[in-house]
Design goal:
201 residues, 85% helix, 7 helices, 0% strand, 434 Repressor (Amino-terminal Domain), mainly alpha
Length: 201
């Protein structure tokens, strides 16, 4: 009985409702702790016979219109979610690539600026003007170094890893979509063939 329930995908509550018994009784039936009564046996045998007849049918029957509508709606919802996910990842990829390019450009400018500051501090101008400029350059150096730490190579690597992960996700999404489309084409082709076979006298 448990195997039959698992084949149909029914829960204990659902099968118990069909057999007009409590879930506790059904559980006892499945565990072999209680024998089936005649009325329950008849209902179960009928369900099993219907299932076997469907399995032996040479041509798959089309789904009822209301069920087909639900399936199609679910397929469309899944497709919409996939498109939305792709848009989200594409936007994230564009932002990450833009940030990486900006960090690389900023890091290059800051390094050049720090090299210039070092030269100015190594060869300061003479007199009070030189002292004032040296103080300014020391301040500039501290600020430039802090900014460089926010866009230097390790930070760029983190962003590059993020970009690689997004690209991998996009490739996986593309693969899933390709597999899903192939499965849909195969299913439709099989359904069309079954209908053609059914129409053949």
């Amino acid at each position: 009985m448990k195997q039959l329930r698992q084949i149909t995908g029914l829960t204990q509550e659902e099968l118990a409702m069909f057999l007009k018994v409590t879930r506790s009784s059904l559980n006892q039936f499945e565990l072999g702790k209680r024998p089936l009564d005649s009325s329950t046996s008849i209902l179960l045998a009928g369900l099993l016979q219907d299932l076997l007849n469907m399995e032996k049918a040479p041509n798959a029957q089309p789904l009822p219109a209301d069920i087909q509508a639900v399936v199609q709606a679910a397929e469309q919802e899944a497709a919409d979610k996939m498109i939305l996910q792709k848009i989200t990842w594409m936007q994230a990829l564009k932002t990450a690539e833009k940030n990486l390019a900006a960090m690389q450009a900023r890091a290059k400018r800051l390094k050049n600026w720090l090299i210039l500051i070092d030269r100015k501090l190594t060869n300061p101008a003479p007199g009070p003007v030189g002292d004032w400029q040296s103080n300014c350059f020391e301040t500039f150096k501290t600020k430039a170094l802090e900014e460089l730490l926010n866009c230097h190579e390790p930070v760029q690597v983190e962003t590059a890893i993020k970009i690689a992960a997004i690209k991998a996700s996009l490739r996986e999404l593309k693969r899933i979509k390709r597999v899903a489309n192939l499965a849909m084409r195969m299913a439709k082709s099989g359904l069309a063939q079954n209908r053609a076979n059914a129409a053949t006298p």
